[in-house]
Specification:
Layout: H1 14-21, H2 34-41, H3 44-52, H4 69-73, H5 79-98, H6 128-156, H7 161-221, H8 236-269
Helix pairs in contact: 1-8, 5-6, 5-8, 6-7, 6-8, 7-8
């Protein structure tokens, strides 16, 4: 008797774990099974489109749609070469986030804002340079990893009818879920901004208290306060760790965005060849 396979649960994304562990996001309840959750995400038009790339079991390799001529002319790449390429792309994006784009990578350099607070500080706009930093890296990851994913699908489509079907399914999921993915990932910046504003308000309160304490001390001593040398609360105490948190969030997002490509790579590097 064949044992029924357990229903898959949703993948616990690196970004979600990071945000939860850093108290930027409330812990989620136990995830539903994949099919139920996906059904909640899709409208009927998307469901019809997805059904269109799921051929019935009666479709044979001979009935599968032929590959375009330019795909047929391309030689399949060895699995280890594909794995090295994926590792190289990830390493370049990691370096871009942590240090700046490496030379020769073709990636635009995106610099972290200087760790200073320009006076007067406006709470509503203080995070704007960091928002641009995050958004620029998200666009860079999106563009680079979409290209990588398309390259892996192209290689997978050369692995027979089953490979073609899996590549078509992945392309359909990418198209269907792209808008939802973008909306969810955009919330990362808002969560980081909320933490930034909280820390900034605390800093400004400490700054005000330090100034009041110094003024009171000068009045008691009969000495006027020196306007050129006001007491200051050090912003680096909270700003530098927050900047590191921002980079770590982008790295966690990178690993989450990489999951579809890693799934395609796993299919390509599986020992058993894909068969319909």
């Amino acid at each position: 008797m064949t044992r029924a396979l357990p229903r898959a649960s949703l993948y616990s994304a690196s970004l979600v774990r990071f945000l939860t562990e850093n108290a930027l996001l409330a812990p989620a309840r136990q995830a539903e099974d994949v099919g139920q959750k996906l059904g909640d995400w899709l409208d009927f038009r998307q469901a019809i489109a997805l059904h269109g790339v799921l051929p019935p079991d009666t479709v044979s390799a001979a009935q599968a749609a032929p590959l375009p001529a330019h795909v047929q002319r391309m030689a399949p790449l060895a699995p280890d070469a594909l794995a090295r390429h994926v590792d190289k792309v990830r390493a370049q994006l990691v370096e871009s986030i942590t240090q700046g784009a490496p030379a020769g990578s073709g990636l635009a350099r995106i610099d972290m804002p200087e760790p200073v607070l320009e006076a007067p500080v406006e709470i509503k706009t203080a995070f704007e340079p960091y928002r641009r930093f995050v958004a620029a890296h998200q666009r860079q990851m999106d563009s680079t990893l979409r290209s990588l994913r398309a390259q892996l699908r192209l290689q997978l489509s050369k692995q027979g009818s089953a490979g073609q079907q899996l590549a078509a399914l992945d392309a359909a999921f990418e198209k269907i879920l792209a808008e939802r993915e973008a909306a969810l990932l955009a919330k990362t910046s808002k969560l980081l901004e909320k933490r930034f504003v909280q820390a900034l308000k605390s800093h400004m309160l400490l700054q005000a208290l330090a100034t009041e304490t110094a003024d009171a001390s000068d009045d008691m001593d009969g000495i006027d306060a020196n306007p050129n040398d006001p007491p200051k609360a050090d912003p680096s105490i909270w700003l530098m760790p927050l900047r590191q948190t921002l980079r770590q969030a982008l790295l966690a997002e990178l690993d989450t965005r990489l999951q579809p490509s890693l799934g395609l790579l796993e299919a390509l590097t599986a020992q058993a060849p894909l068969t319909p």
